[in-house]
Amino acid sequence: MKATIFTSETTQPSVLGTDPSRQAVLLLRTVFTSAPIIFGLDKFTNLLTDWTVYLAPVATSVVPLPAQTFMYIVGVVEALAGVLVAIRPRIGSLVVALWLLGIIVNLMVLGNFYDGALRDFGLLVAALALNRLSIPAAK
Prior knowledge:
By secondary structure, the protein is an all-alpha fold. It contains 5 helices and no strands.
């Protein structure tokens, strides 16, 4: 009778696995699900900040709504984008990346929040990384 030797190649991986790319997908997917939902919901409460401060006046001249009403719409879109990342990360990550691009343009137009625009550019790159990592592996 032969003894079975279990090595790292023959044992079953844990739930998270040992594959760093799988761990990266889980991390990015979690962040890009929870953050847009949290920030989207906060557009209705303004607990984190007064979001209307970050809205360029040109936005309300193009869409003639009060700034807070505009932010309610933004909040719904953000929350839905987070849900989309949760259920379809490959598509949702592109929606979040495009959304972040819009935020970057808005902040650049304002001219006061270049640090926020740079931060959101980093988030945009991370959303694109999630998109690339979410492509199913060839079998």
